[in-house]
Amino acid sequence: MPEIKVTPLGAGQDVGRSCILVSIGGKNIMLDCGMHMGYNDDRRFPDFSYITQNGRLTDFLDCVIISHFHLDHCGALPYMSEMVGYDGPIYMTHPTKAICPILLEDFRKITVDKKGETNFFTSQMIKDCMKKVIPLNLHQTVQVDDELEIKAYYAGHVLGAAMVHIKVGSESVVYTGDYNMTPDRHLGAAWIDKCRPDILISESTYATTIRDSKRCRERDFLKKVHETIERGGKVLIPVFALGRAQELCILLETFWERMNLKAPIYFSTGLTEKANHYYKLFITWTNQKIRKTFVQRNMFEFKHIKAFDRSYADNPGPMVVFATPGMLHAGQSLQIFKKWAGNEKNMVIMPGYCVQGTIGHKILNGQRKLEMEGRATLDVKLQVEYMSFSAHADAKGIMQLIRMAEPRNMVLVHGEAVKMEFLKGKIEQEFSIDCYMPANGETITVTTNPSVPVDISLNLLKREMALGGPLPDPKKPRTMHGTLIMKENSLKLVSSEQALKELGLNEHQLRFTCRVQLQDPHSDPDTLHRIYTHLKSVLKGYTIQHLPDGTVMVESIVIKVSSSAEDTNTKVLLLSWSYQDEDLGSFLSTLLKKGLPSGLC
Amino acid sequence: SRHLVLANSVSLYCLSGHPTLPCNVLKFKSTTIMLDCGLDTTSVLNFLPLPLVHSPRLSKLPGWVSKDGTVNLEKELKECAGRVFVDSQPEFCLPERELLDLSTIDVILISNYHCMMALPYITEHTGFTGTVYATEPTLQIGRLLMEELVNFMERVPKAQSATCWKNKEIQRMLPGPLKDAVDVWTWKRCYSMQEVNSALSKVQLVGYSQKVELFGAVQISPLSSGYSLGSSNWIIQSHHEKVSYVSGSSLLTTHPQPMDQSSLKNSDVLILTGLTQMPTANPDGMLGEFCSNLAMTIRAGGNVLVPCYSSGVIYDLLECLYQFIESASLGTTPFYFISPVANSSLEFSQIFAEWLCHNKQTKVYLPEPPFPHAELIQTNKLKHYPSIHGDFSSEFRQPCVVFTGHPSLRFGDVVHFMELWGKSSLNTIIFTEPDFSYLDALAPYQPLAMKCVYCPIDTRLNFHQVSKLLKEVQPVHVVCPEQYTQPPLTQSHRSDLMLELQPPPMPYRRCSVLNLPFRRRYERVYILPELANSLVPSEIKPGISVATVSAVLHSKDNKHTLQSVPKPPPAPPTKKRKRVMEEPPVVLAPKPLLSGAVPLEAFLATLQKHGITEVKVEETADGHILHLQAEDTLIQLEEDGTHIVCDNNEPLRTTLRDLVLRFLQKL
Asked: Which domain of life is it from (chain A) (predicted)?
């Protein structure tokens, strides 16, 4: 029985370092190649030695697919391809291909230039890695090789995020990456057709959450910003350059316009202007509303949001500043935070998840005294708010996707074990399918049971359909017979006669002749007629003919009668049949040996 | 659900005679597929231009009266420079609508935005309930072109609708091209925006190489055709037949993604339309001529008018000018692009990175706009306006270059510039679009003083490229418009300007119905796992195995499956044993065919092993006869047959049968 194997190298019962190996139909595919934000050591990257202990990965992988540009999904890519070694194809969508190298370079700079780490990938390696990337378009069927095909679906989540359908023969797997089942301010909702994969591998970040409506969270966010501005305070929103930042900018921009607010909104420079540009050029990946109106008003050309300069932080009066990075662990957001932390009128809004060890994580846990470098302590007096705007499917959304795709099995990744356990129960209950949640390095195996596609000769099919009609009678199904010819990779089903012909074989006729003695005091023709009548009554539904040449034929079995030379009452029946009629021939010879019933006329 | 059609016939209904604005319907495996929906707009050349502002010249044109004075149509027909024009809202020549019932069309496949302009006529008011498939750029730019057309027509409404001239008796007496115009009764005015929106709401977007299943019977897939943004060729196939539809393809490196040629391989039939209309004009040469004429006119203080469509070649013209402006010191010359959809077209061109050639895609990764016209706009060298009214009239400076439509010169802002600039020989009109004869286009403006330059740029395949392509992809049969099977009328000696193939292409014309040749011999069927696992293959020759299959066939939604024969229900227990004995075999299961031969020596050895030792072998002409003396049984062994004659000993007979079968292969 064919099997599909799934092994997470990362994101197994964990968030971060997404990297999942799939073996299907003799092909090996790596899904995502991410880094872990929570580690600075070897655990930062997936353990590629699982694939092979020595040397390059090229021989062991047929392709690598990256679902979106977040570093926990692509951060290990240059390490994998350039340092471990992989020269095969890497697939990602156009926006991911555009944005991913920028984030990788940013990540490299922070790690190498700021933290001084060595033995890390270089700028050149990022470039070389990106040369191996083949862009994917939505819904395009990409033939990786003769047998393996992949197809990308829209996933929402971030610009260019994709789910991917992987197919070999009639077996298939869908990997969701991160996705979002509700449209937001700038992106649409994930969608997939009823592709009925053998396995659906889904993220499960919000496995146990049914989130309140997005509108409520947005209103809450705007209210908090507005109140702070009104009382003359400053709002800091630490963000990552691409993704939520754009969504929140659109939100504030429209709010400012509607309320006619004058307080300045700033966006920390660097990546961000560039980032907005990507959104403009890849507008077809945004939601329908933005796409429809982009000619009149491009939502990513912000009127109220200006570039930030570090000197503005000391300006008096209210302002809103978006600054990178999102977890307050370094850079501009941290600098501004330090300046504003002491004033209770100010506010910091954390719009996403923070990894342990970061300032963001500390203040969200209520820590009000922070130890900074040089033994200084920072009193946190400003208000701290957490607001989840990260775009992941919640439990409801995950169930919705299962309903859309109708998988035969489910694998949960990219979530916490306890939460997964809960969702697994729900899925198994509601859909009666098996649900797995492998840990990192653990392999799950699913046996598939694919139908075998075969080419049937049109003559044979036509003959069958003419005889049986398009739908067989369930009580009396017609049986068709044919010969399956297996040659190299082709499977052909033809009639037995055609098979002989195509294979250049002679037919071998196997015949049987059997003499049966019978006591029947009648003339030969009468005996023959009595046999005919007898068989007619016994064999219902068979073709029985009394032929003028003095034979009876049952289907293609010939019966002749002659009298014995010594005794005219003793008749000798000659039965002759071919192997094809063996069952009937054998039956008839046994039947006739018993003699004819007396009541026959 | 549809009933099954196993018939081999595949037919093609040809609804348009225009080779570059095709409209064909393919009936293939119980699906009815329309291939493109081109609108022949050359009919508008028979009409008077629609001026945006009152034109004393046009309104003073004399009416037409037949020479003998018997026919007087001076209200409907006007004469200008020896030609007669219809004074009415311009009308289009639609695809044929009587050849088949349009409501039976299941899907319409659009290959590029120029080939969809008749869509509202087909999808609205005909009972059409199907789906239209197109790529996103094709839909968006197609919408812009339709919107522009509607806008051109609706902003200068004409009260008069001329119909008398269409009377057969009268038309016969008319001069010039009007007399020969075909099917004038079926010509139609432009559709409304509402009809456009309704038609386009039926479009389902597809991406290149996306596989779309139709009714389980047919798979369609668009391929990049390299001609315009989102332009596609289509593959229509089942498991065993493949039709390629090639329409408007280009091998030149312009802005779109390159043409996908390899996917066209192994086609049974290739339908070839949309070759270049200018087989002798080299697009690069034309582009050079365009630039030099433009520069010359501007230097001499004249204006340049470029009648063009709002999308397509204009992007390449602007890109060419972007590189040319500085070197030709045209840095201060204003370039205007005037169209109700100018802004949209320029904006849309920048957001389709996926559909662009590699160089342009790379720019988007930087991120920079893929087309340099963004920079021309930013530096104020190129300005765009929705029409000549409004801002344009106050900002307009001369000498300048104006890009505007419609290329037929019958409607749109171009009519205004013809009236404005036609009288001065300083000005130049440069024709770049190949769809209209420039002499016909200019006819209602004669006499003209302005210079005319004809640089048609048609990047579609020429005959040389297409024969190379066909050699490469090797379709079994080629179907094409009849125009491609003979040299152009005006160049009848140029046998290089036609398709010469073996077997010769099957030509079609408007209203043709072709039966496409297919030799389909197989159909796809799926063997369910249970049955598949029960099959016992045996190797019959090295590398070739066979297995006999007995199965029940299920056919539903054009999908066939084979499953195991259900086991017969157990016989009712009440029946007497004797009766059961007499039941004939339930299933009339024929035994497989046999093949091979029974070798004498080996067979004798086998018999011996089974205790049959007294065998007398007699040689015959065709083989041997074996007398099993103790058993009083004969076995006749021949090369292609075995005959067992055995009386009154059923156990022996079946043993002998099984021994013989050991030497034979079952099929």
From this structure: Eukaryota
- Smallest Cβ–Cβ distance between A295 and the set B344, B529, B546 belongs to B344
CA-based nearest distance A496→chain B, Å: 6
Helix B136-154 / helix B342-349 crossing angle, nearest 10 deg: 170
Three-state DSSP state, A460: helix
pLDDT at B351 over 90: yes
Which residues have C-beta within 8 Å of that of residue B134, sequence separation ≥ 6?
B109, B110, B116, B142, B203, B204, B205, B206, B230
Q: Are residues B266 and B379 in the same domain?
A: no
Range of the domain at B608: 594-666
DSSP B28: E
pLDDT digits (tens, 9 = 90+) for A495-520: 988 999 989 999 999 999 998 888 88
ipTM: 0.85
DSSP-assigned letter for residue B354: G
Contacts of residue A575 in chain B, CB cutoff 8 Å? Answer: none
Q: Which helix (H) or strand (E) holds B71?
A: none
Task: Render pLDDT for B614-629 as a digit per residue (tens, 0 to 9).
Answer: 889 999 988 999 999 8
Query: Is residue A600 very low, low, confident or very high in pLDDT (cuts 50, 70, 90)?
Result: low
Q: CB of B585 within 8 Å of any CB in chain A?
A: yes
* Of A500, A499, A559, the residue nearest A533 (C-alpha): A559
In this prediction, what percent of chain B has a pLDDT beyond 90?
A: 74
Q: What is the pLDDT of residue B580?
A: 43
Task: Note the pLDDT of residue A584.
Answer: 87
Nearest to A453 among B351, B353, B524 (CB): B524
Question: What pLDDT shows up at residue A211?
Answer: 66
The closest of B621, B525, B91, B611 to A494, measured between CA atoms, is B525
pLDDT at A471: 53
B488 and B349 assigned to the same domain: no
**Contact flag B584-A493 (C-beta cutoff 8 Å):** no
Q: Residue A68: pLDDT above 50? A: yes
Domains of chain A: 3-210+391-447 (3.60.15.10), 214-386 (3.40.50.10890), 454-471+479-503 (no CATH), 511-594 (3.30.530.50)
Average pLDDT over every residue of A350-365: 83
Nearest CA in chain A to B558: A470
Least-confidence region, from A409-418, B330-339, B411-420, B588-597: B588-597
Mean pLDDT of chain B: 91
Do the Cβ atoms of A94 and B239 come within 8 Å? no
Give the count of Cβ contacts less than 8 A between chain A and B. 279
Q: Is A97 on the interface with B (CB under 8 A)?
A: yes
Residues of chain A in contact with residue B584, where contact means CB-CB under 8 angstroms, are: 538-540, 542, 584, 587
B207:A139 CB<8 A: yes
Q: Residue B124: helix, strand or coil by DSSP?
A: coil
Say which residues have a Cβ less than 8 Å from residue A328's Cβ, sequence separation at least 6: A238, A334, A337, A348, A350, A354, A358, A359, A360, A363
Residue A457 to residue B643, Cβ atoms within 8 A: no
| Stretch B574-579: mean pLDDT | 46
On chain A, the residues whose CB falls within 8 A of the CB of B643 are 510-513
**pLDDT mean over B308-314:** 96
Contact B347 A539 (CB under 8 A): no
Kindly state whether A572 is in contact with chain B, defined as any CB-CB distance less than 8 angstroms. no
Chain B residues whose beta carbon lies within 8 Å of the beta carbon of residue A454: 524-527, 562
CATH number at residue B111: 3.60.15.10
- The DSSP string of A470-502 is SS--SSSPPPEEEEEEEETTEEEEE-HHHHHHH
Q: Do B522 and A492 touch (CB under 8 A)?
A: yes
Residue B611 reports pLDDT greater than 90: no
With beta carbons under 8 A apart, name residues in chain B contacting A513.
Answer: 643-646
Catalytic residues of A: 203
Are residues A484 and B593, on separate chains, in Cβ contact within 8 Å?
Answer: no
In angstroms, what CA-CA distances link B415 with A147, B67, B177, B261, B444? 57, 30, 21, 41, 11
